[in-house]
DNA sequence: TGAACAAAAGATAAAAATGTCTTTTAATAA
DNA sequence: TTATTAAAAGACATTTTTATCTTTTGTTCA
């Protein structure tokens, strides 16, 4: 098992790709995005529809249409994407699947995993969608392969 | 998405339950385990068959039979269970699903998630199957609800 | 206007994870 | 030895996740 679902992996990579293009003033089509992050085009389309409905990204139809992202959305944390796609089980759920994570009735891993969960949330909350644009432009960071 | 698959959650809870009973010198049947960790009995049976084949736990058939765990297995780290069930994607895979996690071709989250991955491994490697027995006996820790 | 373009929406399909049922095998004890 | 017990094994079913296909809606531009 990976940390995120496949859907969420695609979602984060795609949003970062769109963000990167958006700061260059370019709207980008689904075909381009799918190629840019190496994901199945039609599946990704579904994911982006969902993110668009939820207001994380924007889109326009027709010629010269495509996906883009507003400056205010650029400032949103990555945790917003994760929460929209995978929910918040990663941030609040019990590591061993107990119905309720709590210090009152803790599972054996409670203390140590609470710290890890908090660190995961911290990383995803501190880093915004726009955080990585410079390194993406410079080709230091990768979204495919 | 949770950190572990449902299968892995059941596996860890069940192994800790068996370990707890084993240190009391008791072999325990599938029905008892399933009740003790609140999991579907027949699904858990499949999981334990697998762990038994892989040598993490032991079993005997017939009257007074059931599952138990050897002292040497009690000393094995929890990471062995996770690796047996979920593989090692959690420990070595790219957070964003790139085919290969590497510092040469890093995804945007590489550095920060490498640290988190290492911490997860650390926790699971330091804690053995037998680590929690005392607190389980004392009822301080919980494996169900 | 209307032709072309591109995302949205809805319907299916395939694969993987989770859960259940039935039969078989092995151990124990009477 | 035979009956009973309990796990192992194999087959099957359901649900969720991932992926694809088709039709519709909205936008742009000639
Ligand atoms: S109770 Fe399991 S992580 Fe908190
Ligand atoms: S490349 Fe993504 S976590 Fe290392």
Automatic annotation (TrEMBL), chains A, B:
Q: Which InterPro entries match?
A: TR_Rrf2-type_CS, Tscrpt_reg_Rrf2, WH-like_DNA-bd_sf, WH_DNA-bd_sf
Q: Under the GO molecular function aspect, what terms does this record hold?
A: DNA-binding transcription factor activity
Pfam families according to UniProt? Rrf2
GO CC list: cytosol
Record protein name field: Transcriptional regulator, BadM/Rrf2 family
Classification from the root reads: Bacteria, Pseudomonadati, Bacteroidota, Sphingobacteriia, Sphingobacteriales
